[in-house]
User: Fold these one by one.
Assistant:
Number 1:
Amino acid sequence: MHRHRGAHRRRSTKLIRQPDFLLLWAGQSISEFGSQVTVLALPLAAVLVLHASVFQVGLLTTAGYAAFLLVGLPAGVWVDRLRRRSVMIAADVVRALALASVPLAYGLGVLTLAQLYAVAFVTGVMSVFFDVAYMSYLPGLVGREHVVEANAKLQATVSLAQVSGPSAAGFLIAALTAPVAFLADAGSFVVSVVSLLAIRHREPGPERPEARSLRAEMAEGLRFVLRHPILRMIAGCTASFNLCSSAVAAIVIVFLVRQVGLHAGTIGVLASLGAIGGVIGALTAGLLRKWIGTARIIWVSAVVTAPFGLLVPLTSRGFGLAYYVVGTFVTSYGVVAYNISQASFRQMLSPPRLLGRMNATMRFIVWGTMPIGGFLGGVLGSWLGDRNAIWAAAIAEMLAPIWVLASPLLRMRDTEAVVQEPAEPAAADLSAQAVTG
C-alpha cells in the first residue's frame, strides 16, 4: 500500500517537478546532441577519409538499421522479461565502447570501412534494445496522464539537438576530422548512463507468467499490432515513409558534397536550419492536438508536409540552398508532430505487460524498412545519379500517408476514447470499432 501511495503522489506531481523525469530528460538531451555528431561523422568518415563510393555509403545506412529486422521482435520479448532501465544502461555502455573504437583505430592507422559497418551495426542493435525499453519505461515513470507531455518535451529536445547539433558537429569534424569526432557521441552515452543510474524510481519487476517460447511471445506482440485497425495503418504509413526517407539519407551527404560542392561545416548549418521545423513541431504539438484533434493531427501532419520533400533534389549552390532548408524544415515539422501524436497513442493503448512487445513490433515494422531503403538509395544513386535518386525517393515518400487516410482515423477527431483504459489484444479491435462506428 505504501508503494502505491508513493506512486500516486509521484504521478500527480507536475511533470516538470518530477526529479526522475528531469534526470531522464537531461541524460537523453545530452545523448541526442552527441548522436548528431555520428549522424554526420559516419558518412563523412567514409567519404572523406576512406573515399567510399555512393553504394558503399548507402550500405552504412543498411548496416545501422539492419538490427531492426534481425533483432527487433526478440528485443521486445526480452524487454518485457527484464527491468527496462537495466536494458537502457547496458545498451548505452556498449554504444559508448563501439563508438570510441573508431578514433582509436584511426589513430593507429587501421580504420577500415569494415569497422565502420561493424560499428554501425553494433550501435544499431543496442539502439533497438534501448529504444524499445525507453518507450516502454516512460509510461511507468511519469504516469499515463503525463505521457503526451513527456513525449513532447523529449521530442523537443531531439529537435533542438537536430538544430544545433549538425552545425556544431560540422565544425567539430572540420577541426578534429570525422573519426576523432566520434568521441563526443561516446561521451554523451556515458552521461546518459550516469543519469539513468541516478533515477530513484524503481519499476516493478517484470511479470513471470508460465514458461512460454520466444516465438509465442513475439507472436502475441505481432497480433496486438496487426489486428488493431489503427495501429496497423500507422505502422504501414511510417514504414513507407521511412523506406523512402532512408533512401534519401543514404545518399544526401554524398549529393551535397560531390554534386552541390559543400563542405562539412556548411552541410551542418543547412541541417540545423532545416531541423528548426522539428523544434516548432514539438512546441506546437499540444496546440495542434487541441485545435485539430488528436486523431486528425496524425494524418493531417503527414498529408500536408510530405510533398515538401520534393524541394530537396532542387538544391544547388547559392540561393538554391534554400530549397534544401525549406524542404527539410517543413518535413521535420510534420514528422515531429506526427511522431508525438502516434507514439503517445500507442503507449496509452497498450497494456503494460505488452508495452515492450508492442513497441518492438512497431519498430520492427517501421524501422525494418530503413536498411532496405538505405540499400535502395545506394543502388539508385549508382544507377540514376544522386539527384535523380533523391527525386525518385521523394516522389514515393508523398504516397506514404495513403495508409492513414484509409484508416479509421479519418472518421475520428480524437483518440482519447480508444485509450481510456489499456486494451488487451482481444478487445483492441472492438474498442476502435466502437468509436469509429
Number 2:
Amino acid sequence: MVHLSVALGLSAKDLLTAIDFYVLDKRETVPQGLRYIPQVNTERGPAFVALRKQQDGDCIFLKNNLCMIHAIRPSVCTAFPFVFRREGSDLAWGLNAMKDICPGLGKGIEVPASELVQLGTETLRALSLFAGFVEGWNNKAKKPTAVEFLESVLTDPRFTV
C-alpha cells in the first residue's frame, strides 16, 4: 500500500480508488486462499484488504493483460500464483490458482526451489509484519474506518519505503 501511495502520489483517501475492503457475508466461509490473511476491522465489519477488481474480476491495474504497477506491486502479487506457509520450521508452498485464472500455469521455465524459498521467505515476512499491524489496529481502533486504517499504514514506520 505504501509503495502504491508513494509511487502514484495517492493519499489514504485516494487509495480507496485502488484498494478495496472485501467484507464476507456472515454465511460465507473464508475461501482457502484467504485463510491465513488477517481481516481488518472497518466500519462495514471485518474485511480483507486487496487491490480493487474491475467488473470482469480482473485487477484494476491489469491493462491489455499487463500489470501497470509491476515494479511496485504488492508482495501477494509478486508471489502469485504461489502460496506459502510454515509447517514447523519448514517452508511449504503450493499453487493458489487454476488454469482458468492463470492460463500461464505449467508454461515456461520451472521456478527453482531456491527462488521459491527466497520468495516464500520474503512473502511470509511481509505477511507477518502486516498481520502484527492488523492485530494492533483491531485491538486499538474504537470506531475503525477503512480510511483511518490506510492512514495508519501510510504513517507507520514499519511500512516506510
